[in-house]
């Protein structure tokens, strides 16, 4: 079979968009926090979730699409289309609801993938984090991503309020322990049909 170049450019499977959400928009998202009921984050498959503080210690809530949050979904959805075209070129169909996550002192999330191990017709293809806190509001809490396969040289990120980070869901990543303050984010997974 003859060899040829299928794609004419590298796809880094990572993108940092600075200041996509304005400070006023971030404040409006944080206002949604007052409407949420937070619970301890869990690990495990649907119906088998357990609290495992050694691996994941944070508080989470879900922001569903309703008249108060529709604008967040619309603005984020527009960005997803551009980023997927420019960086990933994955076959995607939509994204899950936003997971509003808060990390406080000593809370963390150890190394993990976002892909689900159980079979489902849909799978997580791209992970996204919308930063709701500025770096000076907390110490520690860096987002670390193994983007090049080298554990000795992870990407270490401390994005600003309003920034959005995209990376392939199969990439190992973690949230380093918080030393002080509170780190707030919206986390979202962009989904697509499983190829087989």
Task: Kindly describe this structure.
The structure is a single chain. By secondary structure, this protein is an alpha+beta fold. The protein has a single domain, classed as Jelly Rolls. It is 15% helix and 35% strand. Strands 1, 2, 4, 5, 6, 8, 12 and 15 form an eight-stranded antiparallel beta sheet that branches. A five-stranded antiparallel beta sheet has the order 3-7-13-10-11, with no helix packed on it. A two-stranded antiparallel sheet has the order 9-14. The model has no long low-confidence stretch (mean pLDDT 91).
Task: Write a concise synopsis of the structure shown.
This protein has one domain: q2cbj1_9rhob like domain (Jelly Rolls), CATH 2.60.120. Helix content is 15%, strand content 35%.
The level 1 CATH classification is Mainly Beta
> So how many helices?
2
Radius of gyration over C-alpha positions, nearest whole angstrom: 17 Å
**Would you give the CATH topology?**
Jelly Rolls
Structural class: alpha+beta
Task: List SSEs in N-to-C order.
Answer: EHEEEHEEEEEEEEEEE
SSE order and pairing:
Elements: E1 14-17, H1 23-32, E2 39-40, E3 56-57, E4 59-63, H2 70-88, E5 94-95, E6 98-103, E7 108-112, E8 122-131, E9 138-140, E10 143-145, E11 155-157, E12 164-168, E13 173-175, E14 178-181, E15 183-193
Antiparallel strand pairs: 1-12, 2-4, 3-7, 4-6, 5-15, 6-15, 7-13, 8-12, 8-15, 9-14, 10-11, 10-13
């Amino acid at each position: 079979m003859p060899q040829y170049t299928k794609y004419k450019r590298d796809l880094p499977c990572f993108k940092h968009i600075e200041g996509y959400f304005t400070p006023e928009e971030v404040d409006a998202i944080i206002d949604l926090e007052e409407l949420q009921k937070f619970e301890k984050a869990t690990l495990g498959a649907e119906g088998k979730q357990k609290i495992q503080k050694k691996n994941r210690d944070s508080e989470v809530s879900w922001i569903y699409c309703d008249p108060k949050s529709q604008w967040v979904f619309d603005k984020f959805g527009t960005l997803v289309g551009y980023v997927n075209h420019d960086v990933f070129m994955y076959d995607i169909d939509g994204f899950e609801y936003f997971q509003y996550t808060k990390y406080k002192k000593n809370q963390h999330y150890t190394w993990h993938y976002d892909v689900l191990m159980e079979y489902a017709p849909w799978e997580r293809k791209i992970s996204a984090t919308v930063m709701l806190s500025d770096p000076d509001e907390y110490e520690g809490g860096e987002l670390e991503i193994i983007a090049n396969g080298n554990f000795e040289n992870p990407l270490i990120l401390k994005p600003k309020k309003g920034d959005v980070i995209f990376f392939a869901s199969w990439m190992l990543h973690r949230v380093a322990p918080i030393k002080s303050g509170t780190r707030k984010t919206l986390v979202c997974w962009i989904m697509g049909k499983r190829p087989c």
